[in-house]
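Retro notes (design track)

What went well: tokenization of the new backbones is finally stable.
What didn't: we kept losing track of which sequence belonged to which structure.
Fix going forward: every design gets posted as structure first, then sequence, in one message. First example under the new rule, 352 residues:
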């Protein structure tokens, strides 16, 4: 059922003209764009991340034309990010990749990732290391895909294994004698049409403004697969819908069984299936003010087709279909207001 819905959504996005690859939510380009939006140099809105590389490049191109409004430091930052988004800007100067290719209908880049970090605090020391690959590709002017795959290790006598009281992402870890190891795999495929995009991803995303975490949805939880619909029919209206597939980490006792054969015996376990669905509508009635409203639900069991309705109030929708308390979802409602006034100030309020 889920595969059919995803294929149908991709098929309906036939009238497409610009490709989508997403900028990771931890990229510093978001802070750069947000600071310049506060100064009213660009019209960037930060309530939902990630945005596409193409959209980020569009802002950089706009800033190039307004370079006289930038400080010397901001001009240096702009030149650095122009290298980072050289693919989308189609410039000769771009960031170095292990391999890259670009012609009129196809672009591809891939690079290895290798890092080592020493740290020491509180009289204790340790190190982190991670390695993997990062790649993305565009086809024609309608399709984008990306893959970022890394293996991490945190070792030493100062490792925070649980990560409960920190903004760092919690992990499904593999215990080792002096630390933890874990994998982080992100990727997705996307198509774009003239006032929106649709994608299937396993990635991080944030909803709402904030530093070191957002109240509505942050990167505290590990990434999970989700279907995303992004719409912006007019510049002052933005809409996002997400349906995610969660890891409940809760064993379904009914799905537990014992299997035996002449070679080995083993216990088979299944986890309870859980899903997350949300929508988020943002509009800008005045250039300095943003209002946002949305709702979400977490439900379990089988996939519910009605939860693929982008424009719905999911808690009431669940009640309306008479599922009863056994399959009742856990619903949330949230609001946010952002005010960029006076000049060089930004105030935001989130109610969850």
């Amino acid at each position: 059922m889920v595969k059919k819905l995803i294929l149908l959504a991709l098929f309906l996005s036939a009238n497409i003209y610009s490709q989508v690859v997403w900028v990771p939510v931890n990229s510093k380009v978001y802070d750069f764009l947000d600071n310049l939006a506060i100064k009213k140099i660009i019209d960037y809105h930060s309530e939902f991340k990630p945005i596409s590389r193409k959209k980020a490049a569009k802002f950089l191109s706009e800033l190039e034309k307004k370079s006289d409004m930038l400080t010397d430091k901001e001009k240096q930052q702009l030149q650095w990010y122009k290298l980072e988004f050289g693919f989308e800007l189609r410039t000769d100067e771009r960031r170095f990749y292990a391999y890259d290719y670009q012609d009129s209908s196809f672009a591809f880049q891939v690079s290895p990732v290798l890092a080592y970090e020493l740290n020491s605090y509180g009289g204790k020391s340790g190190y982190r290391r991670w390695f993997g690959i990062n790649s993305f590709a565009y086809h024609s002017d309608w399709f984008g895909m990306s893959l970022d795959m890394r293996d991490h290790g945190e070792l030493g006598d100062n490792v925070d294994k649980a990560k409960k009281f920190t903004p760092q992402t919690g992990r499904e870890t593999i215990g080792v004698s002096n630390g933890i190891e874990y994998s982080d795999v992100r990727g997705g495929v996307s198509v774009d049409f003239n006032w929106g995009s649709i994608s299937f991803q396993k990635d991080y995303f944030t909803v709402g403004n904030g530093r070191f975490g957002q109240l509505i949805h942050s990167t505290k939880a590990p990434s999970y697969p989700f279907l995303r619909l992004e719409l912006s029919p007019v510049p002052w209206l933005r809409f996002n819908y997400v349906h995610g597939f969660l890891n409940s980490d809760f064993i379904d006792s009914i799905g537990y069984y014992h299997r035996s054969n002449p070679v080995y015996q083993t216990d088979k376990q299944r986890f309870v299936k859980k899903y997350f669905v949300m929508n988020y509508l943002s509009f800008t009635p005045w250039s300095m003010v943003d209002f946002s409203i949305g709702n979400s639900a977490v439900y379990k069991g089988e996939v519910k087709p009605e939860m693929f309705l982008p424009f719905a109030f999911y808690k009431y929708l669940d009640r309306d279909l008479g599922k009863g308390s056994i399959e009742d979802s856990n619903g949330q409602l949230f609001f946010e207001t952002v005010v960029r006034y006076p000049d060089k100030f930004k105030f935001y309020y989130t109610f969850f």
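Added context from the reviewer: Residues 219 and 338 are 21 Å apart (CA to CA).
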